[in-house]
C-alpha cells in the first residue's frame, strides 16, 4: 500500500483567481501521475472553501485565505482522499467558512479531519479504506488558539506541543480510539510551530518521538512552509514538515518555500517498508516535478537535513529513498 503525503495546499487568493483560467488538473502539473499510483492521498488544506466572504475579526489576523466552491474540483482532479483542517486558516472566514468547507469536501467524497462544528466532531478520526487496509488519520494544531473548538463552538482540534502528561494522555487516547474504530495504520497529522524554520526544535523532536511511542505509525507535520528533515524512529517515519505544495506565496530566495516533495510512504502489511521522495518545484498556483540542477539542490538539502536526524537516504536521478 502506498500513501502520498503533500504539504500545504492553499487554493485561495491568487490561486482562486488563476483557477478561473486553468483546468483543475493544471494546478498539479506532472505530479498527477505520481498521485494516481497511490492508494491514498493526504493534504493539509490551508484555506476555507466557501462563498461566505466576511473575514475573521475576533482577534488580529494578517492573512485570510478563501477559495470559491469550484476549488473542490481541483482536489478531485488529484483524487485527494483526506484533508486536514486543523490549521490556522480554516476559520479565516469565521465558523461559517469552516462549516461550508467541511460540507463541500464531504459532498465531494473527501474526508475532512481536525475541525468541525464542535470539539467532538473536530477531534473525530477520519477512517478510510486503502487497498485491504483501514487507515485512520487524526489531526491537531498548535496554531491560532482562538480557533479552537469547544463543546458548542465550531473550530479546530487544538493541542499544545508539550510533554505535559495531560497532553500526552490526550495523544494516547486519540490514537487508541482510532485503533478501536478499526484502523490498521494510524497517521498523526500536526500543523505545528512557526513559519520558515529549516529544523524542528528539540521540544518538537521529543514530542514527535513520543507520538510514535504512543502508537502512531506516521507523524505527518506541516506549517513551516519549508520542508524539514526526516527521522526514522522505532522503524516509523517522522515527517517533521512537508512544506508547501500549491500556493501563490512570495518566494524566499534562501529558504525556498517553492521547494518540496511528494512524500510517498509504502507499507508491507501493517509495517512501514519504504519512503520515496519526489522533488517538486512550486510556481504561481501550480506545482511540477523538479528537474535538472534544481532537483539535485532540493535533494541535497533533504539529504543533509535528514542526516542530522540520523536518516540515510539513497539518492537517485530524480528521487530519493529510504528502505526499511
Automatic annotation (TrEMBL):
Pfam families: PGA_cap. Residues 2-249 form the Capsule synthesis protein CapA domain. InterPro entries: Capsule_synth_CapA, CW_Biosynth-Accessory, Metallo-depent_PP-like. Belongs to the CapA family. This is Poly-gamma-glutamate biosynthesis protein. It comes from Thermobaculum terrenum (strain ATCC BAA-798 / CCMEE 7001 / YNP1).
